């Protein structure tokens, strides 16, 4: 009997929605509540004592997950193991993962060999719009990209030689 009443209630609403002023273009999604709540929580965390540590740790953890997912999708289980002196082994695999993230995001990136080391140049910031107005993209980049590299090889150290956020025309990464 309850399901009959529920059905009638929804049917009545569907027939009368125009009478109460709701247009057919009106959209409401339950998930938008969650997004709004999470955004407000994030704003408070970013402004709190210790908030930077929480956000940095979260960005790093997401970087690890993203790096693992890209490594698995790329099919190379042994990538990043044992690197060579020229940076082509572990360093190349780590930077290839970052390059793949950029390419999948529609951002121009290229791997180069400079002075015997593999170098990644990123021409547009993949982090520029993330947490806009709440947290600096430079911090997000540092933590997320480091997590992605550590997903490939925990011993690797990601170094940004050039930064767009510091006025350079592109970002340049190397892995040691």
Describe, in short, the structure shown.
The protein is 49% helix and 12% strand. The chain is built from five helices and four strands, in the order ααααββαββ. The protein has helices at residues 2-16, 30-46, 51-74, 90-104, 137-152, and strands at residues 109-114, 117-122, 158-162, 171-175.
Explain this structure to me?
The protein is α+β, with helices and mostly antiparallel strands and 176 residues long. 49% of the residues lie in helices and 12% in strands. Strands 1-2-4-3 form a four-stranded antiparallel β-sheet, with helices on one face. The longest helix is centred in the middle third of the chain and has 24 residues, at 51-74. It is elongated, with a radius of gyration of 23 Å.
Question: Helix and strand layout, with pairings?
Answer:
Layout (H helix, E strand, L loop, with lengths): L1 H15 L13 H17 L4 H24 L15 H15 L4 E6 L2 E6 L14 H16 L5 E5 L8 E5 L1
Antiparallel strand pairs: 1-2, 2-4, 3-4
Helix pairs in contact: 2-3, 3-4, 3-5, 4-5
């Amino acid at each position: 009997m309850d399901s009959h009443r529920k059905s009638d209630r929804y049917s009545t609403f569907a027939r009368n929605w125009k009478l109460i002023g709701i247009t057919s273009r009106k959209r409401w999604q339950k998930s938008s509540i969650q997004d709004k709540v999470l955004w407000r929580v994030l704003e408070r965390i970013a402004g709190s004592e210790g908030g930077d540590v929480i956000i940095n740790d979260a960005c790093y953890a997401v970087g690890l997950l993203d790096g693992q997912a890209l490594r698995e999708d790329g099919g190379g289980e042994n990538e990043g193991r044992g690197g060579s002196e020229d940076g082509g082994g572990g360093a190349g695999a780590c930077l290839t993962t970052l390059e793949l993230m950029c390419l999948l995001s529609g951002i121009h990136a290229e791997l180069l060999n400079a002075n015997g080391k593999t170098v990644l140049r990123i021409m547009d910031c993949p982090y520029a719009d993330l947490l806009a107005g709440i947290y600096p993209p430079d911090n997000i980049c540092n933590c997320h990209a480091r997590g992605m590299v550590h997903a490939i090889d925990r011993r690797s150290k990601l170094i940004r030689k050039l930064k767009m956020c510091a006025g350079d025309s592109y970002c340049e990464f190397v892995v040691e």
